[in-house]
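Risk mitigation, structural track. In case the binding assays with S-adenosylmethionine fail to produce interpretable data, a predicted complex structure has been prepared as a fallback.
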Amino acid sequence: MPGNLQSFLKQLSDDIEKQTLIKITLGNRRIKSSDLKNVFIKPVLIKNIPKLSFVYRYPTKDITSNFPAKESIFLIEKLLQDEFYNADIFTTENDFHFAFQKNNTAKIVSKGPSLKSTANALQHDKEKIRIIQATNAGYLKELGITTAEGIVKKEKQDKYKQINSYVEIIDGIIKDLQFNESLQVVDMGSGKGYLTFALYDYLVNKLHRDAAVTGIELREELVTKCNNIARAAGYNQLVFKSGTIENAVLSNTDILIALHACDTATDEAIFSGIKVNAKIIICAPCCHKQIRKQMAPENELKSITKHGILLERQAEITTDAIRALLLEAHGYKTRVFEFIATEHTPKNVLIVGVKQDKPLHPTQFFLEKVAGLKLLFGIQSHYLETLIDRL
Ligand SMILES: C[S@@+](CC[C@H](N)C(=O)[O-])C[C@H]1O[C@@H](n2cnc3c(N)ncnc32)[C@H](O)[C@@H]1O
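Fallback model:
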C-alpha cells in the first residue's frame, strides 16, 4: 500500500488519541555513519500525565527523554525526515510497517497485531532497576540522597537519576577500553562527592576493579565531610583533596572527570587531562562566560548575538564546540551529547574525549577549524587554547 509521512503521522495521532498505541520503533538510518541507531518510543505516565518516552539508542548508551504527545509527533516527523527510513507502529489493533523513500513517500505494510494489549505498555514512572542501587549504598544516606531505610528522597530523585546516568555512561565508555591493572580516576571540582562516591562504588564493588578515585575540591568543609564518609564506608582508595583544579598535580590518570566545574575551571580540568595524557576526559560544562564577552561578529551572526539570551546560548555552543575541537586536536575522539533529560537538569551537556592511538585527522586540521570559528564570531582567545599554547 502506498503512503506518505502525513498518513503515517495521522495514523500515529489516532492511535495515541485512542490509546491503542503500544510502541513505535524507528530504524534504518538515512546516514549510515550516524551514531543514532534506533529510537524506541512508548506511552508512559509521568506524574500521572500521559507522555511518550523516547529511548535514543547510541552505540554505547541509551538516552531517554519524555515528551507530551503533540511535541512527540513533531519530533517523530523530524526523525523520519532526517534520521530514519523505517517506522514500525505496534497497536492493539494492527502492526504497521512504514518504509520511507528519499522523497518521504512510503510503502506501508499492515498486519494483525503481534502485541496483544497496552496493559504492560503504559508504564508508570515507578523506580526502575538502576546501576547504583539506593538500598545498598550507605554513602547515599550520608550524602542526603536516601532516607535511613535506603529510599531515595523525593527532592533528591533528579540527583539520583543524574548519578546513575553518569555511571551508566562511564560504564559504557570504559567497557571497551584496555586499562592498566589499577585504574586511576580524578574527579575535579567534586563538590559534595555524589558522583565520586557512586563511581568508586561501581568500579570497586560491582566491577571488582582495582581503582583509586581522587576528588579535588576547593571547599575544605566538603573535602573533610567526604573523607569522613569514605573512611566510614571503608572506601580505602577514595580520597578527597582540597585545592584548586589549576594547581592540582596529577600523575598517571586514566579517567579525568569534571562535572559542572564553573566556567574556565572546565578548561583547566581538560587541560590537566591533556597534559597527563588521560585516556578518557569527561566534562559537563557550566556557566560559559569567558568568550561571551568577546563575541562581536562582524557578519550575519550579529542577528543572533544582538539578543542577550541568544548570545548566551551561542557562547555556550561555541565554547563547547571549541573545547571538543581542541580535544580532537590532541588525539581525543570527542562527542558532545545530552546525558539526561532537561526536565531533570538544565546543565545536561557532556563532552567525552577518548584518546586514540591513531587520530582521524592531523592536529592542524582541527586547529584550523578552531581558528575559523574564532574568526567567524570575532573571538580573540578561548581559555583552553591559551592554556594549551603555554605548554
Ligand atoms: C556545581 S559544583 C559540582 C559538584 C560535582 N562535580 C557535581 O556535579 O555534583 C562545582 C564544584 O566545583 C568546585 N570548584 C569550582 N571551581 C573550582 C576550582 N577552580 N578548583 C577546585 N574546585 C572548584 C566548587 O567549589 C563546587 O563544589
